[in-house]
Amino acid sequence: MLKGIDSRLNAEVLFALRAMGHGDALVIADTNFPSDQVSRSTVLGELLRMDNLTAAEAAEAVLSVMPLDTFVDDFAGRMEMVDAKDEVPPVQAEVQEVIDTAEGRSRPMIGIERFEFYDRAREAYAVIQTGERRFYGCFMFRKGVIPPEE
């Protein structure tokens, strides 16, 4: 255990989050996402796991240490529902609440069409598979920067 670090973050996830640079993308995926196959194409090249967590719990842990790149529109994205791209299911609403809390204000995610999401995920730095069983529990976060102290 480490002081001040969310205990839900395992060593492999912490390594990847620390290694990521500004602008790199991280995927947090549900159990139905082809995480193993997609992760082989990422920068990290291997799958990270947070199997015992929901998507919102994993996002909360990740965003406790990783800043979002709010200088770009795609700082956070959600996989759009097929044939209902504007619908936001409860799993996505929960993650949106986590983002808003982490940012201290409302910062809406963009919607990403399903197959575009897969393509973007293959170009991400890493994929974390969660234990989320609800459909469309797939998200993409772009790493931001930590400003210098005043």
UniProtKB/TrEMBL annotation:
GO terms for molecular function: D-ribose pyranase activity; fucose binding; L-fucose mutarotase activity. Keywords: Isomerase. It comes from Litoreibacter ponti. It catalyses: alpha-L-fucose = beta-L-fucose; beta-D-ribopyranose = beta-D-ribofuranose. Transmembrane segments: none annotated. This is L-fucose mutarotase. The keyword Isomerase applies. InterPro entries: RbsD-like_sf, RbsD/FucU_mutarotase, RbsD_FucU. Pfam families: RbsD_FucU. One of its GO terms (biological process) is fucose metabolic process.
